[in-house]
Amino acid sequence: MQTALSIALDAFAYGMALFIICIGLSLTMGLMRLVNLAHGAFAMIGGYIASYAARDLGLGYGFGIALAVAGTVLIAVPLERLLFRRIYDRSELSQVLMTIGITFCVIGITNYFFGPTLKTIPLPADLARPIDLGFRSIAGHRLFVIASGLAVAGGLWFLIERTGFGIKLRAAVENAPMSRALGVRTELIYAASFALAVALAAFGGAVGAEFLPIEPYYALRYMVTFLVVVSVGGAGSIPGALAACLLLGAIDVTGRYLMPDFGNFFFYLAVILVVCAFPRGLMGRAR
Amino acid sequence: MAQASAPMAAATPAHGLGRDLAGLALILAAGLAGYWLFPDNLSFLTRLISIALLVLSLDLIVGYCGIASLGQAALYGAGAYAAGIACLNGVTEPFLLVLIGAGAGAVTGLLAGAIMLRAHGLPQLVLSIAIVQLLHEAANKAAWLTGGSDGLAGMAPAPLFGLFAFDLWGRAAYLFGLGLLVVVFVALKLLVRSPFGMVCRGLKEDPLRVSALGISAFPVLLRMFVISGAVAGMGGALGAISTQVVGLDSVSFELSANALVMLVLGGLGNLYGALIGTVVFMAVEHVVAAIDPFHWMTLVGALLVAIVLFAPRGLSGTLDEAARILTRRPRRAGP
Fold this sequence. Notes:
The complex is a heterodimer. By secondary structure, chain A is an all-alpha fold. Helix content of chain A is about 70%, strand content about 0%. Chain A has one domain (about 1-120, about 140-275): ABC transporter involved in vitamin B12 uptake, BtuC. In chain B, strands 1-2 form a two-stranded antiparallel sheet. In chain B, helix 3 (about 40-65) runs parallel beside helix 8 (about 170-195), helix 8 (about 170-195) runs antiparallel to helix 11 (about 215-245) and helix 13 (about 270-290) runs antiparallel to helix 14. Classes of the chains: A mainly alpha, B mainly alpha.
């Protein structure tokens, strides 16, 4: 029972860390129809900046994360203008290729500057010690990740369903020429939502570093995981992404606890079964 | 890529026998030139041929059927492991080993195709990744059969025709591989021009119209998956015979992604493009990655971005265009 509980808590926290990173990708893929395999690269940039600020400059955890989000968005916005904007209406294959290319470049360049070592983000004392929940104690950091995940999910739902920006974004996705005719500046909307997705990636990369360690091949190693999660959840759906992250996170963590020598076998088996049963993802929208 | 492939499809019937023979002669000449010019690098060149078969097989699926796949190494690895296991169990005749590899690749292609064809677009791509990752983990786990993370080693294929041993110099392996590549290339050239190949291309360009003609897509595409698996399996078997080692890297996502990059670099939907892409990619990798692997990644990444932006038809398409411009200009200038 104790084991089951601790596995469940671990799986929940891991699923939430996945969710914070993947929801940005789900938005770019579902709403902007852009298969952005470089999403993991932005999470990696966020992790590197957070690690540099918190560990090497000694600026503290919270400041490091804020700097990571700001810095990554600052890097991503020019990239959106120069590169991503040209492939919004190209075929999926072109998008996959260009974003893999950007991922390779990011890996090469970060390692040129920061060296090929594992980067850690030191936790503040408050988050490092366990917190008693009454029935079970949990590492403070895990609780922080879970809370952040829930906050991100709620905030995004509010932003997309209840604000003027969300209405304009959905309109631009549904019918770009018509929205432009009605005075919506679709390029600005796209740039803003791209920046939002990147900010979430950077935040997730920094916050989730305990689960997905920041290392030189981070962008490539987890690229597949992120893509798989989004596809299983159904691109563009917040509840779908949440369900996929919790389901796959649970399978992954349980498999690693109980049958460590099978590696990711059950993870990918589950992916094949889910995609075969729900070809559009758990909660994907019909096209 | 839809706008790029339309003129290519229109140009195909005009290709004469002479042009095919010239292309074949060029491949043979380049292969033999490699044999004479780089006698110390024959094992690398044999690996290049083995990967070229993988990229050709990927071209059948991506370039001719329009199904994006990031899991082609599953078929390649199946062939490599089948040939390796057969060789360790007493089947040492190289031709038979290649056939075994082709068979294993074809069976894997049948299974992978049956799974992948259930979805479209992005979920299909994800299925291809999941298949190769699943096989990777299975090969890692089934250590009694595949050697796990150590891989299979100690294969001793019988000499070619009973005369030429697969020795350290790799001369026999290279010429064997070159012969295999030429035979497969001719067969594929005939295949893509056959009515079956045209149906596949039609399904890529306009699936609705092809189905209106009364052709059901699933069996056609599944057959192409089987053929593609056989070609990839032969490539894997060649790799197993020449290096006499089969490792987990032969059934990996990285190899699949690299194969796709090579194909796109050379040009989709064009068998010559698959060969050109493989040669250019592996030659540059051989030189640059030896200096610093991270420089190599930056370079490949920049190259990919440049191809998508400036040369969506790949090297072969760009060469074609350049040739067309060069050959037309005098005609326009003339009377």
